[in-house]
Amino acid sequence: MNVKTVLILLGLALATIFALVCVLLTRGRAPSTCQHLPPEQEDTEDGQSLVFADLTPEEMAQVVRYLQGNLGVQLVDASRAKPSDNCIASVDLQVPAKAEVLRFLDGGGARPAREALAVLYFGNQPDPNVTEYVVGPLPRLAYHRDVTVQKYGGKVPYHRRPVTAKEYMDINALIWRELKKAPQFLTTCCESDGTDLAILTTAPRGFKSGDRKTWFVLFHNVAGTGYYLSPVGLEVLVEHRDLHVSRWQLRKVFYNGRYFASTEDLEREFLARRLEVIRLKKPQADAVLGSMRPRHPPDSLGPLQFEPQGPRYNVRDNRITYQGWSITFGMNPNSGPRLFDIRYRGERIVYELSLQEALALYGSNCPGGMSIRYLDGSFGIGRFAYELVQGLDCPYTATYVDQHYLVESDTPKTNQNSLCIFEHDSALPLRRHFSDSQSFYYGGLRKNTLVIRSISTLLNYDYIWDFMFHGSGAVEVRVHATGYISTSFLHGQGTNYGNRVGPHTLGTMHFHHMNYKVDLDVDGQMNFLETQDMEYEIIKDPWSMQNTIERPYLHRKRPEREDEAAFPLNAPMPRYVSFASPKPNKWGHPRSYRIQIISFTGKHLPINSSMERSVSWGRYQLAVTRRKEEEPTSTSVYNQNDPWTPTVAFADFINNETITNKDLVAWISVGFLHVPHAEDVPNTVAVGNSVGFLLRPYNYFNEDPSVDSPDSVYFSSEQEATACGANPLSCLPTAAACAPHLPPFHFGGFLNL
């Protein structure tokens, strides 16, 4: 064999080896790129988060059985209970005291007893009242303890109880009976006999403690669309305080700017031709104002968010871990979403972050509209957080979690898939720099965020509650408002209170105001408050002393008492307000977290208003107080129906106690003024209607913690930017081929109504 033949064979052998290597590498690469990777395992807490876990349906049912067998009174299922009955109104988790929890979480102490908080309405007693019991310990119940006086300083009067669904049903029946007394008027004005009209409650219910008189607004009701945009001009005032439904009465009627003593009085005025009647056609489904039915067939699909290798977060029980974050989540049926024990890189930053209340206050020249001061916690912010629509309310591939509650029934209910968790690519750099001088390079990091979301439907409005966790160590809280506007019948000088949005529809002005509790523990429980802002000083330039310079300088202050740390709504506030630890970072500054508020709310109720104290948290955009177990919430569900003698008045929390090196709580209020306009039909859009706040590290770290993110991108003019190993962005074309197998669309949210 000559040399030439040997070389040829050798070349063929090398080519074969090269081809085989390429095939093997190709076969090995594709599965590894698309392989579903488990999220990083940071979870070593061994079920400690369950100390905050919402009650399970089995635990709720167990509490109900215990109360039925141990209170010694007859209990009627709240779903059919009359005001004169005794019933279980709700059962929820009794959150353990913070000191007990921290001994358990941090000090190796015993797990706190698992207890429930049961609220009972005692209508079948000589002194009807609302009583709250702590029941425990689960799972082997052995005691119930009346905590009403301990919590509120006295008994809760019966008239303060929230209105139940059964009470609303009885009120509606009364209204429909009364409407039958004005048949010719109803036929002429509304093409109706009254039974097909929708009835909307207002609140509060009167003008003084003990009142239970409610204005109800009537609307044309068209199946499949929001009736809120179709008022017929008729409103009625019902007194329903008496324990006997048969004694309830319709006290006043309003129509088109005039008041009448009864529906008979209204009919008489109509028949005598002394009443101006606006004749309204019954709206049809295909032409009704506010229909959300699509007007065009589906077009091409929009962008789809998915994780090529599976979620990078981990959900175990009620705890989420994600790139250094650890969050425990839950839902209060009244006040809504609540988070506990929020840690970053193993350090607790927030002990509790919870929504407290959502106020909507309206103006109108109709009695129902002008009366509205809805306190949504009394209706049930968490209870009415229904199933989320995958692919619209949250990304299709998000993780969905069921929420359970027991309210106005002896049987627990489930809002399936009513909380979602997902990682969100905001299509924005968290940080970046392109260097075009000295040396040429690019460095950056995508702004990927963990989002926890629920959406509450409270009558006409839908509130989107977001809690976001950033790679920079920041926590962001936002609320978006959408849904239908509330309206009044347009008459007289109605446009002084809003804009006309339909033939006879006035979109009534209002403002939304939400309050949050933020129990920050910055490098420990003992914190102080520090504010910083800029001022100018006029100086001579030091190099010639011939010219002046307006030099900005940092004005620092440490408020020492609660009165100094209560910042009034819509008043100037220091731009930097921080919870600080006595312990310094590497550079000698107190380790701190800054509170940054984004809000443009309307004006708070005048201080001399008879109901202002019930919403006195709204006086402040931020108030910092000493943390106390006896001040767990800024409001109460009982404030809605007796705002004149509030069960909880936040203003009493601020009593000038020292706040230096103490366990502190920030109470943050955000909101916006909304003057409805044509573009609010059919729905208010979320764009521009979102407010919130951020908790941002401020000298807490020694540098931006996101520098440790494996998602960081860096390449220079001396590198090959297309190399997948050096630049993760170069891996995207291959990763994009890993489209997930999406499960079939499913929605069961109507099943629980």
Describe this structure in words.
Residues 72-142 form the Copper amine oxidase N2-terminal domain. Its cofactor is Cu cation. The protein is mostly beta strands and 753 residues long. The chain has 3 domains: 48-158, Nuclear Transport Factor 2, Chain: A (Roll), CATH 3.10.450; 165-272, Nuclear Transport Factor 2, Chain: A, CATH 3.10.450.40; 319-698, Copper amine oxidase, catalytic domain (Beta-galactosidase, Chain A, domain 5, Distorted Sandwich). The strands form 4 sheets. The protein has a 16-stranded antiparallel β-sheet that branches. Strand 9 and strand 10 (258-260) form a beta hairpin.
Strand content: 35-45%
Instruction: Specify the biggest β-sheet.
Output: 16 strands, antiparallel
Helical content class: 10-25%
User: Mean pLDDT across all residues, rounded?
Assistant: 93
* CATH architectural grouping of the largest domain: Distorted Sandwich
Let me know the CATH homologous superfamily of the largest domain.
Copper amine oxidase, catalytic domain
CA radius of gyration is: 31 Å
Helices and strands: which structural class? mainly beta
Query: CATH topology of the largest domain, what is it called?
Result: Beta-galactosidase, Chain A, domain 5
How far the N terminus sits from the C terminus, by CA atoms, comes to 89 Å
Classified by CATH, the class of the largest domain is Mainly Beta
Q: Please work out how many helical segments DSSP would assign.
A: 9
Shape assignment: globular
Q: Which stretches of 5+ consecutive residues score pLDDT under 50?
A: 16-31
Number of domains: 3
- Total number of β-strand segments? 34
Domain Copper amine oxidase N3-terminal: 161-258
Keywords: Copper, Metal-binding, Oxidoreductase, TPQ
Family: Belongs to the copper/topaquinone oxidase family.
EC number: 1.4.3.-
